[in-house]
Amino acid sequence: MNIHEYQAKELLKSFGVPVPNGDVAFNDKQAAQVAEELGGSRWVVKAQIHAGGRGKAGGVKVVDSIDQVKKAADAMIGHRLVTHQTGPAGSMVQRVWIEQASDIKHEFYLGFVIDRATQRITVIASSEGGMDIEEVAQAHPDKIVKEVVDPAIGLRDFQCRKVATAIGLKGKLMPQMVKLMKAIYRCMRDKDVLQAEINPLAVVGDGDEKLMVLDAKFSFDDNALFRQRGVTDLRDLAEEDPKEVEATGHGLNYIALDGNIGCIVNGAGLAMASLDAITLHGGRPANFLDVGGGASPEKVTNACRIVLQDPNVKCILVNIFAGINRCDWIAQGLIQACNSLQIKVPLIVRLAGTNVEEGRQILAESGLSFITAENLDAAAAKAVATVQG
């Protein structure tokens, strides 16, 4: 689950992390009011969407008058912002964040991520902030520093100082960096954050320089939201694919892709293998959908309905290896879906495991035109051949 920048900043602030003063606005008049209450002579107007690259796409404006604040907010709110992370369709801007402009002396990158290889939180930092960290890692790998955190003892002061030294922070900024990094680490640990990206972390001010988080991007562990009620309240459903939101409500794991072969599979590993098999045969999967264990006929019907909401879907591949599931349940669900949804696209079905013979018999006696396959490879080949005519 992702949250907006302003929500991430409010969360960080609650852990003692320095962030600029600001507030959110939902129209140009509110934006002007926020700027007036903040005071000063320069402000930053930032579009709030769940995507990076906003600055390059015109979603971040530095202005020096209240009238310009209103104009910038009006130009963003109610319009789609297209960045390299949103795709060509872009994302609708429904709110903006207004903050006092900072006198930036230097920008850094700071990230906290879960390293799947070490199964530990890893700190990633660079002296090259304000730009895509992927580009820095590719062009200047020597400017990337990493520090792995031992979960038994947490992030230590010497590790923070090591990171600070590596990116060029010293003097009065060193203890600030230690305090800031440990606060972000506590936030990540306590709130079940999968990724906390601070870009840029900046040195601001004229005489008395200090560190300030100017942008923040947070991603949370969906599986831990049951114990993070405060985090769940930050979820913005308008920023998510409606199909994915509906699937979650039915206990389905759905991720939209850009292909034309719909996929209904049980088990994440088998679902990934199904996507690979389709791609291997020259096809393009339209989605990842895991019905999980114990899929009832109603659950299968809901899965079909959600997959078919994508107008690009030309056929559906159903790949079930039943353990907890039962093939006869799946077969009944597919028949129910065909009858209630009036499915017009071809259904390629591969069943294996518990009650497989009963399931195949139910499909054969249904009077419906299912295309069956004995294994995944054959099913994927038939799905691709069906789409290609």
UniProtKB/TrEMBL annotation:
Its cofactor is Mg(2+). The keyword Membrane does not apply. GO terms for biological process: succinyl-CoA metabolic process; tricarboxylic acid cycle. Its EC number is 6.2.1.5. Keywords: ATP-binding, Ligase, Magnesium, Metal-binding, Nucleotide-binding, Tricarboxylic acid cycle. Substrate binds at N266. GO terms for molecular function: ATP binding; magnesium ion binding; succinate-CoA ligase (ADP-forming) activity; succinate-CoA ligase (GDP-forming) activity. GO terms for cellular component: cytosol; succinate-CoA ligase complex. Mg(2+) binds at N199, D215. Binds 1 Mg(2+) ion per subunit. Heterotetramer of two alpha and two beta subunits. Succinyl-CoA synthetase functions in the citric acid cycle (TCA), coupling the hydrolysis of succinyl-CoA to the synthesis of either ATP or GTP and thus represents the only step of substrate-level phosphorylation in the TCA. The beta subunit provides nucleotide specificity of the enzyme and binds the substrate succinate, while the binding sites for coenzyme A and phosphate are found in the alpha subunit. Belongs to the succinate/malate CoA ligase beta subunit family. This is Succinate--CoA ligase [ADP-forming] subunit beta. It comes from Methylomagnum ishizawai. The gene is sucC.
